[in-house]
Amino acid sequence: MLKSPRFKLSPEIINLLIPCLVVLAITLYFYFSKFEGNITGFFRIGSILPLSPYLNADTALIYQGEIGYDGQQFLSLALDPFLQNPETINALDHPIYRYRRILYPLISYVFSFGYRPLIPYMMVGINALSIIAIIWIINLYFKSDNRFKYQPLLTLCIPGVWMVLSLGTADLLSSVFLIGAFYCYRDHKYLETAIFISLGCLTRETLLIIWFSLFLASLLQGKIKQIKYLLFALLPPIFWTVYITFLNLPGKVRVKDNFGLPLMGIVNKFTALLTGGLNGRNLFEAYLFILLLMSFIAIFIIYLQNRQTNLLIQISNGFYSLMFIFSSITILGYYLDYSRVFMDVYFLLLLSWNSSKIPWKTTILSASGLSSLAFLILHS
Q1: Residue 380 pLDDT class (50, 70, 90 cuts)
Q2: Comparing C-alpha atoms, which of 122, 27, 129, 41 is closest to residue 79?
Q3: Cβ distance 43 to 170 under 8 Å?
Q4: What is the distance between the alpha carbons of residues 154 and 149, in angstroms, rounded to a whole number?
C-alpha cells in the first residue's frame, strides 16, 4: 500500500506563520478589547498636554489626569511631520527632542499618503510588521545552525515588544534596524550595515550606541571598509540634527533628567522595591527589573564562552550597561520605561550564540514570557 506523503512545515515557515498569527491576534485583542475599537488607544493620550490640532477630543481615547506617553508625541508628529500647523509644536512636550526621532512618524505619514484618518492605523501596522520583521531577520541570522532554528520565536516572550505595540512608540522599528545591522555586519554586507544603522539613528538617536559598537568592532576586527561606510552612515543623522537647530524649536534634550550619578538610579530602584510591599504591582516591577539585570549578566557570560562570535554583541552590551548604570530613577522608576528603553538588551541576548550546556538565554527569555503574559492580561 502506498503511503501518503507527510506534509511538514519547514522551520522558516513556522518562524513566520506563528508570529503572524500571534501578532495579529494580540493586535486585535488590544484594539477590540483593551481600546474598545478606538485606534487612538494605542497611543496612550493624556489629558494634561495640549492635543494635536488634527485629533478630535470627542472621539480620541483620552486618559484623564494623565500626562500621556511617548506614543502621543509620535502620533502628533505623524499627523503633521512638516510642522505646518503651529499648534502641533504646542502639542509636543519637548519639540526639539521629539523631532529628532522623525523616521517613524514620517514613514507613517508617507505610507498613509498624508490621509490623516489612516495614519494611526498605519503606525500600529508598522509596529506589528516590525515584530514579524525582527523574527524574520533573526531567523536568517541563525539559519546556518540547526541548534537555534526555533529561537527566533523567543522574540514573542520579550515584554517590551508588547508594551511598545500597545503604546505606539518607535522602539520596535529601531530594533528592526539594529538587528538588520547586526545581521549584515556578520555577513560582511558593508553598505547594508551602514544603511540600517543610519535609519536606526533617525528613528531613535540612542542607536548611536550601536553605531559606536559597530565602529569599535570593525576597528578590532580589521574591517576598514566597514569603518568607511559607517562614517558615511552618520551623515543623514548629522544633517537632520543641523536642520533642526535652524528651526529654533522650543524645548531641550532631556539627558540631564534621564541620567545621573553612577548606580544611584539602581540603588533607588532597589530601595523602592524593598519598601514597596508584597503587592502584585511591586512584585511585577521586581520580576521585570531582575530579568533585565540577569540579561546583562547572561550576555557577558555567553561572551566569555564564545568571544569572537559575540564580540559586537558584547561591545553593545557594554555600552548599554554603562547607560543602565548612569540611568536615573526617571527611567528605572517604572517598568514601562526601562522595559522599553532597554528592550534591545533582550535582543542582544537573543542574538548571542549560546553554545554551552547551560541555556542562559533560553531560560531568561522564556521566563520573560510570564511577564509578557501578565502585561497582556492585566495592563489597562
Answers
A1: low
A2: 122
A3: no
A4: 11
Those residues whose C-beta lies under 8 Å from the C-beta of residue 16, and which sit 6 or more positions away, are 132, 135, 136, 139
Distance, CA of 63 to CA of 57 (rounded, Å): 11
Model confidence, pTM:
0.94
Residues written for the chain: 380
Amino acid sitting at position 306: N
Q: Which strand (E) or helix (H) includes residue 63?
A: strand 62-63
How far apart, in whole angstroms, are the C-alpha atoms of residue 161 and residue 219? Answer: 32
Cβ neighbours around 175 below 10 Å, total: 28
* Listed range (33-37, 98-102, 356-360) with the worst mean pLDDT: 356-360
Residue 40 one-letter amino acid? T
Nearest by Cα to 101 from 177, 213, 31: 177
Specify whether the CB–CB gap between 130 and 200 falls below 8 A.
no
Give per-residue pLDDT as tens, 320-370. Answer: 999 999 999 999 999 999 999 999 999 999 999 877 777 888 999 999 999
